[in-house]
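Lab meeting notes turned into a lecture example. A postdoc, R.K., suggested we walk through two folding results consecutively so the class can see how the record format repeats. The first protein's sequence and structure tokens come next.
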Amino acid sequence: MSQRKYSDQSIKMLIDEMLRNTGMKKKYSELEVIACYNRHVGTYIEKNTREIRFKNNTLIVKIDSGVLKQEMSAARHKLMDSINKELGIRLIEEIEIW
């Protein structure tokens, strides 16, 4: 019979530790940023978004509509702040809209 050692760590802490140890923390953060973007912009903008990437703390968004590009450019700082607030950490430092 094996002896198991238990600790009082939360599941979130264990998952964060596993992601760090396997080198997948960066990829997980990227997916989390993209999911937050989709929740914050709504379905109409999400449908008109052609591509979303997160690289070097910059969220890069390609949008089909010129009007939406202008609106998103005007609201990019507000969007960046709300996504960072939801994540609980300042991951996004800039948003580029193409």
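The second example is placed directly after the first for contrast:
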Amino acid sequence: MKIRSVKFNFIMNFILTASSILFPLITAPYILRVLQAEGNGRVDFASSVMTCFMMFASLGIPTYGIRTCAKVRDDKEELSNTVQELMIINTVTMALTYTAFLVLVFLVPQFAEEKTLLFINSISMVLNVIGVTWFYNAIEQYAYITACSIAFKLASIILMFLLVRSPEDYVKYGAITVFAASGSYILNFWNLRKHIRFKKTRPYRFRVHLRPILVFFSMSAAINVYTNLDTAMLGIMKDKAEVGYYSAGIKIKNLLVSLTTSLGAVLLPRLSYYIEKGEQKAFQETVSKAFNFVLILGSAVTVYFIVMAQEALLLLGGDGYSASVTPMQILMPTVLLIGLSNITGMQILTPYGQENKVLVSIVGGAVLDFILNLALIPNYGASGAAFATLLAELLVLVVQCYYLRQLLKEIVRYIPFWKYIVAVGAGTVLMLAVKHWIQIPQLFSGTGTLQAFFELAVTAVVFFGGEGIALILVKEPFVREMLEKVLGRVFGKRTGGK
């Protein structure tokens, strides 16, 4: 099989991430207005509940499968056997989980109330077994992953505008989201025969996978506590409208996290491969660039959307989501924190086989998040859940940095933090000048939504443009290297490569 460069994989994954941001920007304003806070909250409640069941169904296979298959991808026979073993394990755990799901749907009143949505979402749990997205990530087939994802997203958008017309259509919307997320799984299974053999060539070795799978499962379980349980707890302790307000901020945060971690998403298989082959220098160079990327982009989007939270929510959801502004602003720093912990945990500790340390950090964050949710949600609702998530993500990063303190000392020495601060500061000053002094709403006529669009468009150009120019002026190494490569390619082509 052909393995592309990290640069190509990053471009493909960036396109995938960009599509994951662009499509919700197209659909979210429509869905938030049509379904309103309650309908949107019901869909998100069912989705968050099913995410917890899917976590048990897949155990830790999604992450473990990437690392393990990446290590043996040069040996087709061993790769085939590994994939078969993991799929069999996944089938068993899915069957057990689905049985528990059926029982709880009729025993828990809140679940029974949304049983139609839950059953629709459960289709994803079944199809996930044959989807084997972890395999395609392990062999770095990002062009295929991107093409499939965009195709099904386009189809889902068409279905959404055709079928979702009123608040009562929330069930249809739930079905469309399942189609968008899981439709490609059947295609994945069909194409799997091109990469592996399904013939058994040696006795299955399930036991060798069980311990690391359980460790990764524990990590996934803990992560889900403070990424999905807060939504479920809001739905149980408050009401569906409060879930809708919180979910609006979460949607924007998740999109930004996907963008910030877009480089890290392609690094796990490559870094696992480097470690397996003993290529330590290549490993450290790749990790350093990942830190630079996250610090530059993560700090920028965090500051920008804290300042422009009201306009972003007005554009996406209209006036009905003004209560989401404070929760969103509280959540925004987690974009940077998650971007950094994604590197320290998933791109450094995990490839080195130290997932136990990642688990400790995540469990600590999950416990803190659960306790704070219990204490804060009754009085502060969505804002309390947001604050609990922020502190949980901070604790996760601090614990991981403690474990990696020796390695990080070497890396931190070469990170020009002051240049990032100067660049973000310059962009912020320019943005605030445009936002408050020039008073953009007076320059454009139209509705509040149209004004919000123009404010976001103009301030984004000013902020990110100002930050980029500042980074160039202070000669930030990562940006300078990327700029030289781009200019080299452009002028090299114009001169015929001379």
